[in-house]
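Need tokens for this chain, all 467 residues.
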Amino acid sequence: MILNDIADRIFRGVETVQDGVHEALFEPVIRLGVTGLSRAGKTVFITSLVANLLDRGRMPQFGPGTAITAAYLQPQPDDTVPRFDYESHLSALSGPEPHWPESTRAVSELRLSFKIRPAGLLGGLTGLRTVHLDIVDYPGEWLLDLGLMEKSYAEWSAEALEAAGARSEGASFLEALAAVDATEKHAEPVAKTLSQSFTAYLQSARANGYSDCTPGRFLLPGELDGSPVLTFAPLPAGEAPRGSLHREFERRFEAYKREVVKPFFRDHFSRIDRQIVLVDALGAIHAGPKAVEDLRRTMADILAAFRPGRVGRIMSLLGQHKVEKILFAATKADHIHHSQHPRLTAIMEAMLREARDRADFAGASTMAMSLAALRATVEETMEHEGQSLDVVRGTTETGKQAAFYPGELPEDPSHILSPARKGADKWLDGSYEVMKFRPAKLTLRPGEGPPHIRLDRAAEFLIGDKL
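Here are the structure tokens for all 467 residues:
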């Protein structure tokens, strides 16, 4: 096994060097990883980003826009990875009856190529150059699995059981766990029942706004559904004889790391240059202080995946090179009035600062912002009980027009983060509501992509310098 790993690392190292030389001398490639946590709108983000890079009329803060003479889609370089279905997703958003596209449930990829006129005196000598943007789309739950690589089954079990005990969604699983003697001989029906109960708890926790719900493949099993490698659950620590349920679950946990987590990061994650993590911060705030604290910890775990040092040695084993920039973006900014956008951004920036400290992070350039990849609302001011309220108006899921006031975010982020750190059950000085809107009907002029909020700033941070 060790010799195989060494040979695999050498082969991939040579392959990476060859690719790097080709890219540096001929046509550079930017590999952008896009992932999202708990329904953050990853598919919509990629679709709108590509549409707005193809037609840049709504991208004034994207610096390279004027230097790009052409942008076009090309076949992706990896024939073994599903293509991101850009055309179908754009059709869903821009058709006569617009609707949100289906979420992608596995890794996908899309290549967008640019013809760029170099600036300065050399521009007239060198002519146009080609730069490729490879967008790698993958579930956020799978990114969090990297943290499992450096944990034993006992360590993971202790953390998972503590989280389940702090969440109301974990009650049924803990009840099922209490009825099981893990020192008894392994029986597959018992293992399956306990695993299904644990999976149901993770699904419920994610639906209610929690971000840290690992192992990620329990939520998106794909072709592994029903396999032994996904049939385990956390168990309390203790001595267990050979052949017991506890020993079998421990073996399957190690198999999950070896056969599921490691290949994903080796094959799909290891060559990413830039990374964006989409976050439904408004949804977490609506869910309450515990969900916000869970999001803050999850952001720290994500940063830990990129830091040098102990995790860096794991990443080296997986063939990972340095990720240069990471953007944490609070999505659905169109669900609140623009006057509250600075407050949402400040909350994200505060969570990112704390995540940096907790992860002992020193490495890639990081940034936090709020955005809406596709604007689904318009803004209004309404009179209510003698007061003027800044609201947003959009089409609800029932097809009706509605004005919505979600509540006022605090100017000081500590009013959100402090109760979250203390484990408060609810907000004491306010309530923050969310509403689901359908996408608005689009009327696009030539050269314009879909309407958005700060998508151009996100693109500038992530890839502007490379173009």
